[in-house]
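Re: N,N-dimethyl-L-histidine structure - here you go.
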Amino acid sequence: MCEGHLINKKQKLEIQNYEKIAVTPRFCYFEPKTGSKITIAEEISYSLSQKKKFIHPKFFYDTTGSNLFDRICSLSEYYLTRTEIEILSSIKPDLSRFLVGEYALVELGSGSSIKTRKLIEILTSKQDDVEYYPIDISNILKDSSINLHDEYHNLRITGIIDQYETGLEFILQLDHKEKLVVFLGSSLGNFDPKNGIEFLKKIRSSMRNGDLFLLGVDLVKDVTILENAYNDAKGVTANFNINLLSRINRELCANFDEDKFEHVAIFNKRQNRIEMYLKSKVKHQVFVSAINLLLKFKKGELIHTEYSYKYTIPKIKKMAQKTGFKPLKIWTDKKNYFALVLFLVDSL
Ligand code: AVI
């Protein structure tokens, strides 16, 4: 799309809200113009004023948070990333059989480019040129894209630095051949089930007949394994969680004392989800100067920061039915820790 792709009228309108930065003839990215960005100030002002305080997990991913998340992905306790990579490596020939034709790769939450590489390798081995559209809220997208650009000479990258939902609307405007949309890393688990269904519908509506969707989901398993994955011995996940407060200090001139909070991650068996919180160790007050907000914390009070839902295969199939996707193939690892599911666009 960076060079030569036709842009229709509707697409021009969408693109008006974005600034295009052309890095090389094969790599450009779009970011929302300042006015159209939802500011952290507005959202934090709302979420920390609620009776049950919360911070949306998308705010984890500033540069520090994205780097911490990269570290989480290689922790021994955090089995998710390496298991998904293991499955991806083993299914290459199998997955390749489903990719008949010319596919553009759309990746939601581009994250670790190790996974992307596996997919790009399949596509570049079959196609002369491959269009790759990473959508990620984090600026890390720029660095990971430039690395991929240098490695694969028949890869053209158009990045969208935005929230998934708006990024998908952008993608919808593309005049394209077939798409392989991928949403890996169990990121669907960070939506509650109702919003997860809505989000899958949104993905489905950005796709056309013949397009494929590859979803990575973490499966329900032993509680100790799950809780250890979110309470690693090195404390990287704790730092990732606490960085939310440091980010608010940096960006909204707040005076959170990070030492007054502790990281909590527990598995809720009834809901099949890991729940992450920041727990206030003492009664105290915090002032967020940029939004003129005084926060009062009781001893033991929780700020909810993330849910990470775990799924079962029957549950995934049910979700697919509700969202207009037809499961074509489900791959799991030997321990049944993680699943990669390939869907075809189906009628609702
Ligand atoms: C990005 N997401 C799928 C991760 C997860 O496992 O829910 C985020 C994360 N939170 C703590 N560790 C990792």
